[in-house]
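STRUCTURE:
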């Protein structure tokens, strides 16, 4: 299937929603979001940064096969 290159990938929406919700439920990511907001970063940039952190965490869990611990992602 050929997809229009300007249309967002379906995964983008899911990652954006995860980045929006994660700081509410994860104290480590909440601290990251708070630091970025204190530096006057735009809200969307904060959400995307959190989504990227979630991808990094997921990749580390898949690579090591170990469960993620809250203290390991800061």
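SEQUENCE:
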């Amino acid at each position: 299937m050929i997809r229009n290159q300007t249309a967002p990938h379906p995964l983008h929406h899911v990652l954006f929603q995860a980045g929006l919700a994660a700081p509410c439920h994860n104290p480590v990511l909440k601290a990251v979001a708070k630091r970025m907001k204190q530096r006057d970063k735009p809200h969307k940039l904060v959400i995307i940064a959190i989504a990227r952190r979630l991808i990094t965490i997921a990749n580390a869990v898949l690579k090591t096969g170990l469960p993620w611990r809250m203290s390991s992602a800061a």
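REMARK: Helices lie at 10-25, 27-38, 43-64.
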